[in-house]
Amino acid sequence: MSATREAEQDRTVPRQPGDAMPPESVLPELRPMWWEQGMRARVDAGLFGVFAGMPRLVVEALRISWSADRLRTAVVAVVTLAAGAMATFGLLATQRVLVALFAAGPTPDRVRQALPALAFLAAATAVRGGLGIATGYAMNGLTPKVNQRAERRLFETTTAVRLDAFDQDSFADSMERASRGSDSVIDLVQAVMNLLAGVVSLCAVMVAVVVIHPLLLAALVVATAPNAYAALRAGHVRFQTYLESSGRRRRMWVLHSLMAERVSASELRSYGLRNFVLGLYDRVMGAQTAVEMKLARRMTTTTSLGAVISGLASAGVYVLLGMLLLDGRIPLAAAATCVVAVQAAQRALTQVTFQTDRVFTEGQHFNEYVGFLRRAADYLPQQPESAPAQPGPLQQLTVRAVSHYYPDRDTAAVDEVTLTITAGQTVALVGENGSGKSTLAALIAGLRDPGAGDIFWNSRPLAGWDSTALASRIAVVLQEHHKFPFTAATNIAIGDIDTAPDRTRIEDAAQLAAAHDMIRELPHGYDTLLDRIFADGQDLSGGQWQRITASRGFLRDADLLIMDEPSSALDPRAEDTLFQAIRGRQGRRTTILITHRLANVTHADRIFVMHHGRLIEEGTHAELIAAGGRYAELFGLQASGYINGQATAPADPVTKCAERP
């Protein structure tokens, strides 16, 4: 289904009475995005076109299984094929039993002649049962190992890609489909093994049928092919719908989170959003249900037609067999054997058809996994041609004509910025919201690559240094920090986790960020789990979390500390403690401070003022006030709120107010 048709289906879903649903123009996120049309090539791929890529996918899946556990993979392969061979021996034994029973002579003599074949048949059946047990045992041990290997490979990629990968609209959807594909590895391996076993059994039966009469083989193929094609076609249609529903699945995941998670519960109730989000659920889930109902009708029609045609053809096989028997072209014993062979052939063909459908279905899901890994490779950091150098202590940081654009934006977030920072300096990046401060800081930290220009650490571009070693010399305290569901101690230790910091270092860092006393007041102190969804977990306020994240930055005691709005949620006393710690680094370590509270940067060695991505002013606080430019204007706006005795700063849509002069 095209994106346009998907939108049409969204519009056809009836609203529930009383649901106040805004139009699509108010909620454009519910409309199909342009990138969803990029899946059309895979959705429209023909059945045989998809099959052409299956051998490559099968080899890749077997390679993963082999690397996860060679012994169990080999056992599954050998035992599965052996079980298929046992079916051949069972058919041969059955044939010998029937020949003996239909031979001339007294019944006791015929039974005695059939006993060896019966014993062989019983043995083959027992061996096949034992092989099935061995296969199950091996698969039970192989499955978790393969799943772990495939999933780890996925996470190895997602944790290594550059940050700009997550700026791409299609990346998250592709990753969602890849996570389903990682579960398909073991299913694909097992389906391939069972398919091979079915092929072995089918070959044996085909030989037996051809020996009886060649026409019977052609009739069997006619009897099975329609059902097989119908099953494969239904699987392809099912996967097409899966691909097309990727966007809706993510929307439903978002709605599930809004309606069932603690973080959104307060605002959902305070704004009276219950009917609103339920209406969105009805809209999105209604569209998905309509698609699934249409899928069910198509699959039922396809498989029913295949079953009817195959059933009629199967009846034709027995009619043909009866005609051959009546014409005397085959003896009665051969006819009886043929009946068994026909039934065995149908079972084998059914197994082959079913396993082929599994290979086809799981292969398509696995293809999403493989395709995501291939596409994600474009976002991996480039490796230098020569061995990267180990960075020494920071002496000078130079930003030279650096620009950066975000996807689908015409204006630069950072526009040809040039500046120099000397070791030991405390510098401030200030400006209105959206001026490019945080983006520039991310570029300096190596979290993003500049689109133009370069950044130098001690006269060498950042890309020329060993990235891991360079990262160890930089600490970043983000404005949009993540609340890790770990203990308070671990949340701070994350700042320098590779060194396994002891409790003394952790507490010292917490002291610098005014977090120590706050943590000690928690039910279990530093061992308190900071997440309510777990037993004995605790919530923290925004200011308390800000202290935790500042502690992470202080723990590393890095050459370069970048702090992005570190005090926006702090009370005055905690804010004063934090900035005393920042001032304590001055002359010893380098600090880049991003803040809207200009009173906190008056002590900075250098202040860089940004506006619309460009660096428009720089100097000390005194120099910039004397210049009477944008910095002086913003500082004056903040100071006036206190000079005039106002509780808050003057209304300004893009400038935050300083909480103290």
TrEMBL record:
A single Gene Ontology CC term: plasma membrane
InterPro entries, alphabetized: AAA+_ATPase, ABC1_TM_dom, ABC1_TM_sf, ABC_transporter-like_ATP-bd, P-loop_NTPase, Type_1_exporter
Chief localisation class: membrane
Basic and acidic residues biased stretches: 1-13
Domain of life: Bacteria
Keywords in alphabetical order: ATP-binding, Membrane, Nucleotide-binding, Transmembrane, Transmembrane helix
Entry-linked PROSITE patterns: ABC_TM1F, ABC_TRANSPORTER_2
Region (Disordered): 1-25
Topology in membrane: Multi-pass membrane protein
One of the record's GO molecular function terms: ABC-type oligopeptide transporter activity
Residues annotated as domain ABC transporter: 399-637
Pfam families: ABC_tran (PF00005)
ABC transmembrane type-1 domain sequence ranges: 74-355
Entry's transmembrane regions: 71-94, 114-139, 185-209, 215-232, 303-326
SMART domains, alphabetized: AAA (SM00382)
Name this polypeptide is given: Multidrug ABC transporter permease
